[in-house]
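User: Teach me something about this protein's shape.
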Amino acid sequence: MTVPIVPPEAITAEWLSSALSAGGVQARVREFTQRRVGTGQIGQSIRFQLDYSDAPAGAPTSLVGKFAAPEPDSRNTGVLLGNYRREVSFYRHIAPTALVSIPRCYFTAFDEETHDFALLMEDLAPAEPGDQLAGCTVDQARLAVLEAANLHASHWDDSRIEQLDWVSGTQAAGGAGGADPGALEALWQAFCDRYGDRVEPDMRRVGDRFVARYDRYDVYYRGPKSLVHIDYRPDNMMFATAAGGRPVTVLDWQSLAFGCGVTDVAYFLAGALKRDERRRIERDLLAEYHQRLSERGVRYDFDQLWDDYRSRAFSLFLVAFYAAMLVNQTPRGDEMFLAMVRSSTDQVLDLESLAFLD
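Assistant: First, the predicted structure itself:
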């Protein structure tokens, strides 16, 4: 039986029972509660607490569902960029071989015409989500960097990925998947207009230079390709707490691409650590990332890796101002996007990455 896609407010106990059955759990949900969780900009996540009238041992007592954003701007962005199709396809086709810690997925559904979708995943509590604004600890950063290496090593230069048109940057998707330079310049100007003096002079200098030479940035990397999460930051991770949970689990696969893997590391470290802390340990963390790749059978000269890392220091900057102008505006979103541009500017200047745009 096909389980229809419905919005969270239309979900019933019968629907949850059918979705679980589709995922191999033969249980009958008697009643449930639901509440929105997380701060997703393009999708909405709902936690369901379940009470069964009949269920096998080990049936989940809670689930987290993910659905299209209810806000029109955010939803339209998710549809335009193929985010919803991409995430469902990731769980269906790549998750089993990605070597990265992800939640168990019980149910996936996607409508090719409307782009409505539904995912039902395990509830990872008592692990808790990271917070982009608060940052994370050095130990958490190390876990995230090593998990990135696992992901990147899993399909390193894998020609089969090139045939997937739903993964950005593949041959089947049309190549590099870079942004249109004219549109990018317009979005950057709109970002500066919106936030005014909150965009500090050095942030403007980096942004102006970046959008003017984006064509150079877009073609610079021509090395081996791997899966790239793209939005690899604390908000899209769950970390263990004193009460338990997995050390780290990676969420939100809406932007999956095939390209320069170390982009994820530059993106993460730019925003997850305070500036002084990042400067103190980032090369050591890159060495640990390099070692994990080696353990997974990847050969990558460290000096080349370091140059590639420095050249990708614009990644957080790009996503921050681009996304800010495409999703529904919120107070937390304003703070987050400005903080991302601020910390990425610091990384670009610290690593002298503007030289890669010459």
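Now, about its shape. The first strand starts at residue 28 and ends at 37. Residues 275-295 form the longest helix (21 residues). If you'd like, I can walk through any region in more detail.
User: That's plenty for now, thanks!
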